[in-house]
Write a structure and sequence with these properties.
The complex is a heterotetramer, with two copies of chain A (254 residues) and two copies of chain B (516 residues).
Chain A lengths: L5 E2 L10 E8 L5 H13 L2 E13 L2 E10 L3 E2 L15 H12 L3 E7 L7 H7 L16 E5 L6 H11 L3 E5 L7 H15 L7 E5 L5 H7 L3 E3 L5 H14 L2 H4 L5
Parallel strand pairs in A: 6-7, 6-8, 8-9, 9-10
Antiparallel strand pairs in A: 1-5, 2-4, 3-4
Chain B lengths: L7 H24 E3 H11 L11 H11 L7 H10 L5 H10 L12 H32 L7 E6 L4 H13 L4 E4 L27 H18 L4 E5 L5 H10 L4 E3 L4 H5 L4 H18 L2 E3 L5 H4 L6 H17 L7 E2 L1 E3 L9 H15 L6 E3 L9 H17 L4 E3 L12 H17 L3 H4 E3 L4 H23 L1 H6 L19 E3 L7 H9 L1
Parallel strand pairs in B: 2-3, 2-10, 3-4, 4-5, 5-6, 6-7, 8-9, 9-10
Antiparallel strand pairs in B: 1-12
Helix pairs in contact in B: 1-11, 1-13, 1-18, 2-3, 2-9, 3-5, 4-5, 4-6, 6-20, 7-8, 9-11, 11-20, 13-18, 14-15, 14-18, 15-16
The chains are: A alpha/beta (254), B alpha/beta (516).
Bound molecules: cobalamin (2 copies) and pyridoxal-5'-phosphate (2 copies).
């Protein structure tokens, strides 16, 4: 058995467990309300909860800030998190790999799908301008990037990707209300599976609330969260293409 | 009083150019109608309700006439003829148009005179409904004065109109002056207005007439119980811009997000469609005495707020020119601008101060709308709260009229009760603690703030020269605003645009146009 | 059985359970750290935890803000909270009761005890100036108030109270580190008990972290928290004196 | 550059009055010593360690001579004589004084000349130790320049010096320029300095020489790894003011909380005691090149910040006058003032701005210390964070030198790692976003800000006139500062004050005094 590697919250001393919570309860401020907030905090596992503030924030509702010492600990040894495993590659390295190992332009198609109109994220990855000084895929000689913009339906995206022989499809989802991003993403994967070409294309999922784990769960090949740089995406795509030998057997040669 | 140098000649030239830009488009507008406009006319005349399949009757009628290639006469033409032919009410007439076994092809039958006479009372009723709602609003505002500027504006967005009503009252309790119900994510692309009260919606709540009623009642209640007038806001935007303007007008809303170009840029709605729709929506808005909120703030979410600050200003001139053409008065123009500069840029606060003051001075009578930081917000809610405080400070120091409050949870979720409460509390504090700050300070006449203001106006002027030269159609297709490019015939809703017949009939629009 | 009266946290819809937490974990930012934060939140009973931010706040430490839907509910029906039960009395009413029912000046002695140097709270209650427009006990004709200030040892306070024949002792405790306020408070109660005059005096406990329940637990007659007004304290004292008939059998007449 | 009107004549008059006030007290100071002072001298000469019962040897010696009524000769007198009599080191001499079977009653024995000669090398060593620490600090500062003003100052207070060391490094990582370890709640009333590294303490960590060493090493490490000089601060305050000043001087601390009146007002320490102690502590501080932080900010926690703002200013003049008399230079005077006005008062921000700017202008060369809101903080940490942001803004706009950062948890607990991190992040943002704000704005010359500044200076002048007339002893007993009243012979530590003998001996103090 792997030895436990427990960590606890840190206020100012090792393992003091200090955490802060804030919430609203449907009750008017009173001694009873304060007690309710304390009990509520204790139910979460906070010892010695301190109700730092209790304020009427609406008729019949009270806002609380509570501090307490959490009794919970997380066992790091038990956490398995897939991380997008690519070495960081420089722009030049990426171009070189494409040239030597792939021997043709890598084709990617991106879109922000469904009712989502947030293009800034996908633009940051694809457009020339890029993100935080890191230029987008459009700027690479070795990439041919199609950016379909926002509010794109899955079937349109899939059709376009097939039409241009995409090596990778880049899906952005920013709106996450009631998990619409998950449903939207899953639907695309299923569509492509049902059309029988899932193995021929890399599927990348990205957005401020996306992580690699979630993307894998939904059937994508990788997930990219906030702060992703275009070069990271480029590196992932070329490495995977190389690995999977999609290069020779890929869509293009069909 | 802190001011920035503003060259009035340049401002005059900007207005002149913007007017020329709008005049060019107006020719197109005057020659066209859209399915949205015609549905609006039907609604205004009193066509209501949905079919058994849930399709609004106004859609059934308009689509039918559109398919038949008859919409270019104006739906009022057919409505009038149906009334002459014996329909006992607009409702009955509309049903006849929607379901009638034989379609009126517009030829023969009633004379123009008869038709005009038949529709005239309905036109009068429609106008009276707008006026009545406007007067009621005025009376309530007289009885309960609004708060001090900057008016504190918050959004509610639970998806469920009944929860929204509760949230609106909670917001008023915590100090809000204006409550906007933001719309469900997908609504602006729907080419119809949903019907009835709604309780589900992503990212917001559907704009429906019944929802408007429910929420207006709630805010009126808050007005009466709090003794401070609470404004109600919604969105006249998207493919049903004009219909929503009508609904808002008769339900007594105070403000509407309404922009001549937002839909084009941010929703990929066809520009021909949008220009026509915005005009008709604004004719209604003008009559209703509603204040519009334009959407220039959004430009700085896709374009850089430092490099593209001038595009906000030039667009404000254009929005203003379009609005004037639709009969709006300066007092109704809540031109939008925003605090979107990367907070980590040195002196970012000075740049924001400069821009806010510049807009304030150029549009002194306009209830300009000051929008908070959004793009650079991260999930560090504590930092975001401070970022918003700086925004609040600029708002009060430069005397903005309407201030949409920033939310510390901007990068996380639609605001919750707690988020709004804390935002309002912070804004109340900053506004009060700095109440007379603007009167107490002056800006160095050759300093960073002043120079920045001069630069932004110069760049706006330059851009307006270009746009006037090329026409706005081309300018937009080259990405003049928001770094977004759209083509004249691209985008959603283009097939809803119809060239008017030489004998196009629209007595209601005529009446609204006669007003100004 | 009393029917349950369950309340849950409120974000924007009834019972949605939304709460916010923030904490630091001793780990560097990474996908693994994000997962650890999620698990940590779930251990507290938060469903669908959303890690809103993850930032390096020190070498080896990461700051998190998390939102999630708490599964916990508080049963209001099961909460018994003693509340300081006095009717709100006006200044005039208080003066009148002292005059008619007590017939002499009510003597109170106050202090901030132990190493605690925070006089502002006890001053607010005792000094003429008062608190938030509500004048302090010194300002009442019917009260004789002695304010011993701060850093007063329990035995000095007790001695002074006996010496002046105090009807009530007012103890303020602001410093609460490692519960020193509780120990300090309890020690005074025990001292007075051991000296045999606990029944002859009212013991009031106050401070920003004090509530009535805590004060009762420690053996005081009442506890007063943040925002307490002098008139509330005055009302409590005269009402209790009247009730307890301490008036006739009190210290004074011994 | 935003300035407020300052009448230089009035300022000159204030200084004159403050000087007279200090001169009056100086007579008392020169005629007295205290147990604290004498212990300091012993320490400086190298007396170290504790008895088996844990009592510092310096206490044993001084108490013994005090009880014997001999302290008025100065402990150096006896130390010198013990050296002449054959002690091989100061340590041995001190042990002799502490435990020696027969006590030297000061009569007979070595001549004055012999004694002087015996102690002179030790005096030189003591001075060299101070100078050495000062030079080492200077060298490190040259290699790693400090950050920009306002310097960001945070406190750590875990109670455990090893945790404090960790916290100090974390604070430096997050952007702090200055780290203070605040003291355990009760330490200032202890009439001895605890010994060794300590790991327990309420509300703070004990100030001990070993703790100073540990924490200085940690911040030096942070300086080196971050490339930015990190300042270390502690408290020369309370009954051991002078001893701690010595310890700090030789351990290379950069700053000390040190005030001529704080202990009197806030710790009920006797005024005679405090005045003498502060003088000697400052003589050491002057030589060490340490910056003091005075405590006027505290006044506004017990007195109203609007009504009593002028007491801060008048006290600053007095503190300055005392400091000058002890040889401190302007550059060492971190006079304290604070942002303590009720945030809900209209224009509170303007009042704070005014006061901050006034103090800045009156003390242009002083590294003034700007203290955050504390009193009006509540447990609403979100609001508190915004409140602190406004404070940060004033700090950078008025160019304060040292800014103690507010903590959003002020009303809850001593700051935790997270609290400091967020506070530093917000301060970094406000300081950068508003970097040149102060240069860009001016205040209306007859406006609220200007008028307020004039009023505060006038009131301070008036108060100084009164204090000079009555003497500070009386003024304090009437509650002139902080609304707190103290009597001349009341308070803790009075019996530690000793009238000097005509032949009082203190070569170290003489040397320090000779310097200026
Ligand atoms: C800008 C913005 C807008 C603009 C969008 C303009 C445009 N053309 O994109 C406008 C003003 C139009 C807008 C409108 C709305 N918005 Co909006 N918006 C934002 C805002 C402020 C910033 C988003 C942004 O641009 N971030 C910057 C980019 C660079 O970051 P990013 O998207 O995370 O992308 C990075 C990574 O995630 C990754 N990435 C992203 N996608 C992909 C894809 C792939 C394949 C890869 C590899 C990587 C990757 O790489 C990028 C670079 O590092 C956020 C709040 C916030 N601060 O986050 C709200 C926000 C996203 N919006 C929101 C909402 C609700 C709306 C509306 C629905 C509101 C309404 N009802 O009117 C509308 C409707 C829009 C719609 N139908 O989608 C909510 C979403 C709530 C939720 N989680 O569901 C947010 C969080 C605001 C809020 N608190 O309410 N919005
Ligand atoms: C002012 C202040 C000081 C002043 C005190 C001046 C003075 N003479 O009182 C000074 C600057 C001297 C000071 C020093 C210190 N302080 Co201090 N201080 C505060 C501060 C800012 C405000 C407290 C205050 O005056 N509140 C206003 C009064 C009116 O409120 P109140 O006390 O709650 O009183 C009301 C009620 O509680 C009630 N009440 C109170 N007492 C009683 C008694 C009775 C009988 C009744 C009926 C009612 C009642 O009625 C009052 C009116 O409504 C707080 C932070 C904060 N904002 O709360 C920190 C704070 C209390 N201080 C703190 C600390 C640690 C210290 C120091 C130990 C720091 C140090 N190591 O140097 C020192 C040492 C002082 C000591 N030995 O006690 C901590 C305490 C942490 C804790 N919970 O243990 C706090 C919370 C700050 C912090 N976050 O670190 N402090
Ligand atoms: C003018 C305008 N319309 C509409 C919206 C909202 O977007 P939509 O209604 O398209 O979802 C905005 C957003 O801020 C806007 O500024
Ligand atoms: C000059 C001075 N000394 C000391 C302190 C701290 O208090 P003490 O050391 O008495 O606990 C302060 C508090 O802010 C202060 O300003």
């Amino acid at each position: 058995m792997i030895p436990k590697e427990l960590i606890r919250a840190y206020g100012d001393r090792h393992n003091d467990g200090m955490v802060q919570m804030s919430f609203v309860l449907p009750i008017v401020p009173s001694a009873r309300a304060r007690e309710a907030a304390k009990i509520f905090a204790m139910e979460h596992g906070l010892a010695d909860p301190l109700v730092a503030t209790m304020e009427a924030c609406a008729e019949g509702y009270t806002f609380f800030v509570v501090y307490g010492r959490s009794k919970h600990a997380v066992d790091l040894a038990a956490i398995e998190v897939p991380e997008v495993s690519t070495r960081a590659l420089s722009r030049d390295e990426i171009e070189a790999i494409i040239k030597s190992d792939i021997g043709r332009k890598v084709v990617v198609v991106g879109a922000c799908t469904g009712a989502d109109a947030h293009t800034v994220g996908i633009d940051a990855i694809l457009n020339y301008k890029g993100y935080g000084g890191d230029k987008g895929l459009e700027s690479y000689k070795g990439f041919e990037a199609f950016n379909m913009g926002a509010q794109v339906e899955n079937d349109q995206l899939a059709a376009r990707a097939r039409a241009v022989g995409a090596d990778a499809i880049l899906v952005s989802q920013v709106i996450t209300q009631r998990d619409c991003h998950k449903e939207n993403g899953k639907a695309l994967v299923e569509l492509i599976k049902s059309q029988g070409w899932r193995d021929e294309v890399l599927l990348l999922f990205g957005g401020p609330r996306i992580d690699h784990k979630l993307a894998l769960d939904l059937g994508f090949d990788a997930g990219f969260g906030p702060g992703t740089k275009p070069s990271e995406v480029a590196a992932f795509v070329v490495e995977r293409l190389r690995e999977k030998s999609l290069v020779r057997g890929g869509l293009r040669s069909e | 009083m802190a001011t920035v140098p503003v060259d009035v000649q340049k401002v005059a030239r900007c207005r002149e150019l913007a007017n020329a830009i709008a005049a060019d488009v107006q020719q197109f507008i005057d020659a066209h109608t859209t399915v949205g406009v015609e549905r609006t006319i039907l609604r205004a005349y009193g066509a209501e309700g949905v079919s058994d399949e849930g399709v609004p009757i106004v859609n059934l009628v308009v689509d039918r006439y559109k398919e038949a290639g008859l919409l270019d006469r104006g739906i009022a033409y057919f409505l009038a003829r149906a009334l002459v032919r014996g329909a006992r009410s607009v409702k009955e007439a509309a049903e006849e148009l929607a379901y009638g076994a034989v379609m009126d092809d517009g030829t023969g039958g009633p004379t123009e005179l008869e038709a005009n006479a038949a529709i005239a009372p309905a036109t009068a009723v429609a106008l009276a409904r707008i006026d009545h709602a406007r007067d009621r609003r005025r009376a309530l505002k007289l009885a309960h004065a609004p708060g001090d500027a900057p008016l504190k504006y918050v959004i509610v967005a639970t998806g469920n109109i009944h929860d929204d009503a509760l949230q609106s009252k909670a917001a008023a309790f915590a100090g809000a002056d204006i409550v906007a119900v933001i719309r469900a994510t997908a609504q602006s692309l729907l080419d119809y207005v949903p019907e009835g009260a709604t309780t589900e919606g992503f990212g917001g709540t559907f704009a429906t007439q019944e929802n408007f009623r429910i929420i207006r009642a709630a805010t009126n209640e808050a007005t009466r119980s709090g003794g401070r007038y609470i404004h109600q806001t919604n969105y006249s935007s998207g493919l049903c811009m004009a219909e929503i303007a009508w609904m808002a007008a008769v339900e007594g809303l105070d403000m509407l997000l309404n922009d001549a170009m937002y839909g084009i840029l941010f929703r990929d709605i066809n520009m021909c469609r949008t220009f026509v729709d915005q005009y008709v929506s604004r004719r209604l808005i003008a009559r209703a005495g509603i204040v519009i909120n334009t959407g220039e703030d959004n430009y700085l979410t896709t374009a850089d707020a430092v490099d593209k600050a001038h595009t906000v200003l030039s667009s404000q001139f254009i929005n203003e020119a379009f609005a004037f053409r639709a009969g709006l008065r300066e007092e109704q123009l809540g031109l939008g601008h925003a605090y979107e500069i990367d907070p980590w840029i040195e002196d970012s606060f000075l740049l924001e101060l400069s821009q806010a003051q510049l807009v304030r001075q150029i549009f002194p009578n306009h209830p300009i709308k000051w929008m908070p930081p959004t793009k650079h917000k991260t999930g560090d809610i504590f930092f975001a709260h401070v970022h918003d405080a700086m925004f609040n400070l600029v708002g009060v120091a430069t005397n903005q009229s309407i201030e949409l409050l920033g939310m510390f949870s901007e990068a996380v979720h639609n605001p919750m009760l707690m988020d709004r409460y804390l935002s309002l509390k912070a804004a109340r504090y900053v506004h009060s603690a700095c109440k007379n700050l603007g009167d107490e300070i002056t800006f160095r006449s050759d300093g960073r703030i002043a120079r920045r203001a001069v630069q932004v106006l110069d760049e706006a002027l330059e851009q307006l020269e270009e746009v006037a030269r090329d026409g706005i159609w081309d300018a937009i297709s080259r990405g003049a605003f928001a770094d977004v490019k759209r083509t004249r015939n691209g985008g959603k809703g283009y097939n809803g645009v119809v060239k008017k017949h030489a004998q196009y009939v629209n007595p209601l629009l005529d009446a609204l146009e006669a007003q100004s």
